[in-house]
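Please predict the structure of the following assembly.
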Amino acid sequence: MKIIVFGGDGFCGWPTSLHLSSKGHQVLIIDNFSRRKIDIDLGTNSLTPIQNMSRRLETWRKLTGNKIEFENIDIARDFDKLVNIFLKFKPDGVVHFAEQRAAPYSMKNSTTKRYTVDNNVNATNNILCAIVECKLDIHLVHLGTMGVYGYGWMDDNPIPEGYVEVTIDTKNGKLKKEILHPVNPGSIYHMTKTLDQLMFGYYAKNNLIRVTDLHQGVVWGTQTAETKLDQNLINRFDYDGDYGTVLNRFLMQVAINHPLTIYGTGGQTRAFIHISDTVKCIEIAINNPPKKGDRPLIFNQVTETRRVSELALLVSKKTGAKIEYLKNPRKEASENELVVENKKFLKLGLNPTTLSEGLLDEVTEIARKYVDRVDEKTILPRSKW
Amino acid sequence: MKIIVFGGDGFCGWPTSLHLSSKGHQVLIIDNFSRRKIDIDLGTNSLTPIQNMSRRLETWRKLTGNKIEFENIDIARDFDKLVNIFLKFKPDGVVHFAEQRAAPYSMKNSTTKRYTVDNNVNATNNILCAIVECKLDIHLVHLGTMGVYGYGWMDDNPIPEGYVEVTIDTKNGKLKKEILHPVNPGSIYHMTKTLDQLMFGYYAKNNLIRVTDLHQGVVWGTQTAETKLDQNLINRFDYDGDYGTVLNRFLMQVAINHPLTIYGTGGQTRAFIHISDTVKCIEIAINNPPKKGDRPLIFNQVTETRRVSELALLVSKKTGAKIEYLKNPRKEASENELVVENKKFLKLGLNPTTLSEGLLDEVTEIARKYVDRVDEKTILPRSKW
């Protein structure tokens, strides 16, 4: 198939582009390098030495013979270029990673809040609008987040995949409805993904656009089968207080012999998935689109759930690191249960990499290997909310 | 109180500003004249001869002694100016009409779709973000729409005011929840108001912003007690295929001796409110804010529901006009029931003007009086979806 990957230079987008290319799809990456530019503004950098786009693509072509194309476009702004590319490339599907994706960054200040809303909403609407404009039957696969659901709405019951059946008591009897799971986002970033959902529902209904929305958990791990093939293909690893997720913070702390820092009690339970499973899920989604006229198809893209404290213990056991508790800089419940349904991907053949098997590789292959590139003062959180 | 009216030059915003001023509030209007500029692009115009802002305000001051201030700011873009005005004026409340508000206009083409999403989402987010930034306790009153609910989700039961109680069956028993009424917008314009709702919910929870969202029906009528005081204060009357609502189309058709045109069967039922009730509702909302920390307070701002065919009959009976049926240019159910709860405003003292009493005034005072200003070719619909 012909696939456009929006945000194909990023942490999930780059390995996804390589994976789709390795599976024989014709891939076009569109990216405006916003993630690399934010690094410049924040004074941060990927721990791993990622190469520029032309070197990445040249290396991939020499290694595999597969050509991946690239265009630098700001899709939240350059609508006409987007339409022209659709008309010229005629994609069967597009994968939409082109959103500002860090909750802490989205909460830093008014500028980053407004950028996150403006960029994410307009990027999504422009893609949908361009699909309508060019009159092609393009399947949109979007990266959502488990954060749209919030925590605890279903008590200890598993979070269903997108939709939930409810009953309303009326004077004329009981009404049964299947509705989008009510949302409860914990940051401006997560809020934008709840807005995306409503846009998908509208365009699916009004213009019969086929949409798959993947509510992803926290992605861990750095490398996939394809990014490991050559040093020039290496994926990014973020460890700073804005873009680094909890696990990457722990890994860096191991590498610099700092105690693992837990915010609050560590009772926060989060859903996780390894980057090599992310890329497989996206290929499965591409190969299993909803039918024209269907409501958006929603998958929970997670493979396991863990408490933060449990994660720290796991890392500590494997590495001997100490654990330290800090005041939580975020407004969130100090403890929560989290059970997530993820049957759809398992049924379609996903065979997950688990934290207990993959964690030590991250310490030795990434955190300790590149420890001389670390800027220690960027590890701790800089956004509070 | 000190009140800012965003979009205070528009059809609802202008009479609201006068009404709040007449009640002793200190009013500042912010508007970028986008509505007047869209008229220029569309080659349309208000049927009534509306005056420019400085003449409007000068007339009001001479008549009543009340000074209304004005600033020309694009709040979807000029965030810093917005924050500075909040810090200087220190409003107790703001009324947010600053959104592109015509469904047909929002569906014309990719440019108007994208403008509607970009303007409406960024305007709302900027207001919320500016309230947080300036650390003042400002009550936000927003004009939503009955269109967020869609039609028929509750079957023939009354649409509740914003929230609905549901039950979820789980293996651990029944869960009872009060949720935001699920949305089913019929146009890009209506979709933006469903996005607004989620932003309000987020900021109310995370930043304890006090928000009132008014889900308004189709507004009819032109003048209020205040706009009638002087010819220079006259309110706008839109009759073109994009901005004119069904009733205004009928009124113009009466004036030019054209049959009343019904799209489809006319079985579409819509909720209505007179402009003089709109301005009263907004003052009631301003005087009855939710408490800090409350979820957004939602009112249904409607006073009666009518089928389009019934409305045509009403106009026909009063004027002798003929009725003609056209193919419906929109994707919508050909018939729907609509029952709406509106107890909250009635309880707070609203005493509505009804269609059967007010309609004939519109024909004689507006449509026939200004018929020499009409451009007949703009009356019929120009957007199809």
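The mean pLDDT of chain A is 95. The domain at 2-238+272-302+337-353 of chain A is CATH 3.40.50.720 (Rossmann fold).
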